[in-house]
Write a structure and sequence with these properties.
alpha+beta; Immunoglobulin-like; about 25% strand; globular; TIM Barrel; 9-stranded antiparallel beta sheet
Length: about 675
């Protein structure tokens, strides 16, 4: 039997409908080489369903059968026979034995938002993107945070210091609003914001008030008070900061402006995703109030740090009975600036965070989803964690059925991706890590270099197939596929193979000996991969940087790499114009030393991507017949990139014997398209 011809997946070509409802009948299809199989069987939890030959075309036979679903998850695989030969097909591929871990799966009633599948996302850390409202800038000594007074960086091009959580460049939501034209022209379909809520740090993963956008990002209507005097570390004296972040006029004006920003983004066809930091809050949080900012303030109740009688007492776990001003609270990973929220001991806290989840996806804000920070850490047990996320999902989806729930997670997230909790995840295991090792050999923090991984196409293929099989198909097709982000070194810096961090190597080293051609190849693969290709602000403009905080450099508005911007704009446009790249089937065609080729295809459109990741010219023969392209035909090259530049100039290639023969220069990639004649 021809194993390479055997194929099925969870897309709309092979599972009809691809996201079936409870008790719905679903039609499942299997592809084999024409005349190759005497019979095929769908095996599902002890049941054996014979499959009938439904169609023959392009050298393939298509078998199908139907399942009537209930409410429970269904898993299945295929068994095929030819004479005395038997083989099995699962999500990893064909084997001579059954493999339970790679079976196809359907969760009746589970679907992910259609807009999120293949959506081009753009991540923005607001403080470093664009400063357009000087009136809301943090001022020097406005308050004290983690053993230092905050400061405003006046030189936008200055690189971040090694520990810079209290340094602010002044980026704000007005800046994002003013750059919507740029983002729209770039082709962005979704903006994912790092946290926006009131917080004392520049990264804002230490929330002070979940109900309001930080006025330093939004609008300061009522200003006043004074910054701290030199040497003063007592934030009770930070009257300017207290005025700015507790005055309801500032808070409500900031929320109103954010609603205006979302409405304008929606008008342009751009969705908005917020960052939800619900495992922990910040020591400045009004529920704890370790800094005593809210103590005695009109409209605010005593924090749990201040008083044992605080209504928020059970929101936190205290180890000792030491009030007033109890320092013995539980901090996430021991960090006293990140008090862990104590959900198991407070139904009120659980209810409130569920309310927050609903509030921001509802009018007047109408955001389009949540990215959940360290989502697997929430609570004190895995049992509670799953219980919470089930409830969160139900509440958010009830408020906004088209909202996406996307979690940060490292490793196997399948326990949360069963259709009842998260929609999907930030895709480290099945995208960021493998593509980084294949193209650069670098771990995502630049903490190590693995020479043997560079250019190992077969290793890349096996890793991807294994990790992608951990997703339900609806989750895979909207997973956040990033090359880098606020927690990891910039991909462009990884191309220089320098192991270390900014405190060891210095910020200038991040731009030494980089290879932009590899970044372009990574972008080409990213735009062709199943999932939502996500740019971290400035990647498209050539921003470099080692891992946090160096990866949080400002967007270089005065000196961007316009060639890279043009490249990404054209690449994004290509991605958006091809349905196969958003919803089509995925298949590796051929992989080897320094090259990878894969296909995205539907019945009506076939897209082939071929990448030469090495420094030598190579000639390849790619089996495009696997993507249901005729054995003899012409195929169009529609996109090409190499070290000299890129081109959209069309070039025709001949397919002979089901293969296309192509010559690739060093560090180059091509995209081929074939559209069957009607």
């Amino acid at each position: 039997m021809n194993y390479e011809a055997m194929f099925s997946d969870g897309t709309g070509e092979y599972r009809i409908p691809p996201e079936p409802k409870e008790y719905e009948q679903v039609r499942i299809r299997l592809r084999t080489a024409a005349g190759d199989v005497t019979d095929a069987v769908l095996c599902s939890e002890g049941k054996r369903l014979p499959m009938r030959l439904a169609e023959s075309r392009d050298g393939f036979d298509f078998y199908e059968t139907s399942l009537t679903l209930g409410k429970e998850k269904v898993i299945y695989y295929f068994e095929m026979h030819s004479g005395y030969e038997t083989c099995y097909l699962d999500r990893f591929g064909v084997s001579s034995e059954q493999r339970g871990q790679y079976q196809f799966a359907i969760v009746p009633g589970f679907s992910t938002p259609d807009w999120a599948k293949g959506a081009v996302m753009y991540q923005i850390l607001v403080d470093r993107f664009c400063n357009s409202d000087g009136a809301n800038d943090v001022v020097d000594n406005e308050y004290h945070y983690i053993n230092r007074s905050v400061r405003h960086i006046t030189d936008w091009s200055q690189n971040p210091a090694n520990f810079d959580v209290a340094s602010f460049y002044g980026g704000d939501l007005q800046g994002v609003y003013n750059k919507l034209d740029y983002l729209q022209r770039l082709g962005v379909e979704v903006i994912y914001f790092n946290p926006l809520f009131v917080s004392p740090s520049n990264h804002k993963y230490d929330i002070q008030d979940y109900d309001y956008i930080d006025p330093h990002y939004g609008k300061i209507i009522e200003d006043g008070g004074e910054p701290l005097a030199e040497g003063d570390e007592d934030n009770r004296h930070a009257t300017k900061y207290i005025k700015r972040v507790t005055d309801k006029k500032n808070l409500e004006a900031s929320n109103a402006f954010f609603a205006e920003l979302v409405a304008e983004a929606h008008r342009r066809g751009i969705k908005i995703i917020l960052d939800g930091v619900f495992n922990h809050c910040g020591s400045f949080n009004k529920w704890l109030d370790r800094e005593r900012l809210y103590e005695g303030q009109e409209g605010y109740k005593d924090g749990a740090y201040v008083s044992k009688d605080s209504p928020y007492h059970n929101f936190f776990h205290f180890y000792e009975d030491e009030w007033p001003y109890n320092h013995t609270y539980d901090g996430w990973w021991g960090h006293d600036t990140l008090p862990k929220l104590n959900y198991e001991n407070s139904e009120e806290l659980t209810d409130y965070i569920i309310h927050i989840g609903k509030k921001w996806v509802s009018p007047p804000y109408n955001v389009d989803g949540w990215r959940l920070d360290v989502a697997a850490d929430l609570g004190h047990s895995e049992e509670f964690n799953h219980k919470f996320w089930r409830r969160f999902r139900d509440a958010v989806k009830e408020a906004n059925p088209n909202a996406v729930i996307l979690a940060e997670h490292y490793g196997d997230a399948s326990a949360w991706l069963q259709g009842d909790q998260w929609d999907t995840i930030m895709n480290y295991d099945a995208f960021m890590e493998p593509i980084s090792f294949f193209l650069t050999g670098m771990e995502k923090h630049s903490d190590r270099f693995e020479d043997y991984a560079v250019g190992d196409g077969k290793r890349f293929e096996m890793t991807m197939l294994h990790c992608m099989a951990q997703f339900l198909t609806p989750s895979l097709y909207c997973s956040m596929n990033q090359l880098d982000n606020h927690d990891h070194s910039r991909f462009l810096t990884r191309t220089n193979h320098m192991v270390g961090r900014v405190d060891q190597l210095g910020s200038e080293a991040a731009s030494e000996n980089i290879n932009p051609a590899l970044l372009k190849l990574a972008g080409l693969m990213q735009m062709g991969w199943p999932g939502a290709p996500t740019l971290y602000y400035g990647d498209e403009a050539g921003v470099v940087g080692f891992t946090d905080p160096d990866n949080r450099r400002t967007y270089p508005w005065d000196n961007p790499d316009y060639v890279l911007i043009d490249y990404h704009r054209d690449l994004i446009a290509f991605h958006k114009n091809h349905v196969a790249l958003k919803k089509g089937s995925f298949m590796f065609l051929s992989t080897g030393r320094n090259y990878v080729s894969f296909a995205r295809f539907t019945k009506d459109e076939k897209v082939i991507i071929i990448v030469n990741s090495g420094g030598d010219t190579m000639e390849l023969s790619i089996p495009v017949w696997k993507a249901e392209i005729p054995a003899t035909c012409e195929i169009n090259q529609v996109f090409m990139t190499n070290v000299l530049g890129y081109s959209l100039f069309p070039v025709r290639h001949q397919v002979q014997g089901g293969h296309v023969h192509i010559k690739l220069l060093p560090f180059s990639g091509v995209v081929l398209c074939y559209t069957p004649e009607a």
